[in-house]
Amino acid sequence: xxxxxxxxxxxxxxxxxxxxxxxxxxxxxxxxxxxxxxxxxxxxxxxxxxxxxxxxxxxxxxxxxxxxxxxxxxxxxxxxxxxxxxxxxxxxxxxxxxxxxxxxxxxxxxxxxxxxxxxxxxxxxxxxxxxxxxxxxxxxxxxxxxxxxxxxxxxxxxxxxxxxxxxxxxxxxxxxxxxxxxxxxxxxxxxxxxxxxxxxxxxxxxxxxxxxxxxxxxxxxxxxxxxxxxxxxxxxxxxxxxxxxxxxxxxxxxxxxxxxxxxxxxxxxxxxxxxxxxxxxxxxxxxxxxxxxxxxxxxxxxxx
Amino acid sequence: xxxxxxxxxxxxxxxxxxxxxxxxxxxxxxxxxxxxxxxxxxxxxxxxxxxxxxxxxxxxxxxxxxxxxxxxxxxxxxxxxxxxxxxxxxxxxxxxxxxxxxxxxxxxxxxxxxxxxxxxxxxxxxxxxxxxxxxxxxxxxxxxxxxxxxxxxxxxxxxxxxxxxxxxxxxxxxxxxxxxxxxxxxxxxxxxxxxxxxxxxxxxxxxxxxxxxxxxxxxxxxxxxxxxxxxxxxxxxxxxxxxxxxxxxxxxxxxxxxxxxxxxxxxxxxxxxxxxxxxxxxxxxxxxxxxxxxxxxxxxxxxxxxxxxxxxxxxxxxxxxxxxxxxxxxxxxxxxxxxxxxxxxxxxxxxxxxxxxxxxxxxxxxxxxxxxxxxxxxxxxxxxxxxxxxxxxxxxxxxxxxxxxxxxxxxxxxxxxxxxxxxxxxxxxxxxxxxxxxxxxxxxxxxxxxxxxxxxxxxxxxxxxxxxxxxxxxxxxxxxxxxxxxxxxxxxxxxxxxxxxxxxxxxxxxxxxxxxxxxxxxxxxxxxxxxxxxxxxxxx
Lengths: 304, 540
Known about the structure:
heterodimer, A: mainly alpha, flat, B: Rossmann fold, 6-stranded mixed beta sheet
């Protein structure tokens, strides 16, 4: 297990280094941030001074060397826009996104597993049909459209919830609800399908021959086996949110890492872009590690 | 009249399928008493498992429906009981074990937990359940029961898994044990041990044993009475020895006649001249596992060489190595004196058509999306020099007739055929290449006895007609006895004994060959009873 984690960490570290190099040089191609930060009528000297101060006058390779040297010392550079350490800016935004992901995925997982399992128990029953219909609608609806409709209905017309921003628990309701719908539909379908095949398996037949009650058959004998494919999808969906629910965060003015990344790309705030990429990559790596560990815990046949 | 322990009266069950209503069993009646073993004998589709599933309430309704009859347990009609009452009987009064224990044990829970669950489900405490599970593991002969409690099903061998199933079934000391093909997936020597265990446990507990099987040998070994089923109906029932000696119904007679292992064995062949194929010192290693440890073998033109051995003996690896489907790690394979291992790819491609294979499971070896015509004519797409395209249709028709199918079946897909018919298609496909050697890897193992006999007769006819050679991989000794010229016995990657079929069956030299032969079950209950007596004398 330890060597497995070590190998995976090494492989991920190498790809991360490649990614940082790629993003560093590609982002510099977007142009000079100077014009975005100084007023239109700033003098040539002032512009030159800004470039000098931020090191934009040096050859790219020198800038990269300096960036790497700083990285080694744990310095991720300064945010041009907020004039404070880039990592601080990123971590602050990441905390918001992490909470958003944790709350959403917890709701999704619990709801999808319970409803999916029950739907699978009576395939073709009224409950199964309703669950399948709504999950398909949910999985197919575009989230930006849902977000806007939700704002129009619940924030503008009914005025039950705030349109955007943060501050009270009420501010979380719409973003979580809209983010919930698509993964819920998707995971419910996976749970249902996986559960149907598990419930028709030979070992469930054995459980019935043993006289095991219905509820433990579904949730003890069935569920643990059915969870294996489900976990992969849960991890995938959680990673998507962690990576920045860009659209949702932007629409709801939610100060997460997705919104931060878009803003800093538009403002050519290079250090913040790079720091966000590293933080997301690390989060995804940990996420995948957790999935692999969950796999091994659920299924004794899997050993790393 | 006194009540039987379990009695099925005029039971009829229907299944609603896409193809219409299937009457799985009609008016089936049988009964089981304490301490007795009843066997339900039948081929696939005979409905032999259906009444047992009805007893266990395992028939899904829909699509299934019990249309008539009663199931009496100690005189009480189970079909009139509530679902909860039925649930309490399952496992507690009537327990069941199945054919494939790996699939029937939950892969993600420890075996100790699964056995204990049987006790806790029926009201036992966790502690008594654990203690009972440990005792049972010891009783069924699992080494180190304490450690076994925490292990998972995949960590045991096939025979041990069936012992685990038996331990689990006996956890609540049931009055009745239903065993559905309990030894079909096991090696012969392991089969003998498991049947012994069942008999011992029955003697200890006095339970009634209902055995569902397709194997006359199993009936002969263990059953007191037998019920013969065909097409959802009981065709004959009676004392097992009586039915074998004097079958009343034509179907029973046909079944007994089809049982392999009674034909005349061929005389030893002249083995001089150039062999068709010769393998020397074949080795193959998978990780740390040495599947082949230097195997030599010679096949003469027109000869059938059988390789027998239990699972893990390396017999399938040998078959695949000889065809270079899995290249061996070392050794030489000479086909008519040319080394296949050292051959240029182009030359090997040309030779591939001479060496064909028929696999065990035709459901998997035939592409489900290709028609029979496409499956067979694909040979000529690959080796375009065999036959001009204009003659394909006629030749496919010819081959289908040759394997006993009808030419108008060429447009159908594999799923529209029965298992036996599919294996015929696979044979027709191999014949399309006009091969010199066909490797049959357990090619008849999955088939019903009567179908098995037909396929063997077909292969034998083709050998006479075309002078084909066969390398016949099998675990079923009676089939080998009827079909092979020579027999090779393999164990743990090595050949332990080799010789002409008559010598091997009449005077085996190696102890392992003797063990295999004595574990193999004879369809005659009298023969089995004599063997049992001899075994008991030996152990006493």
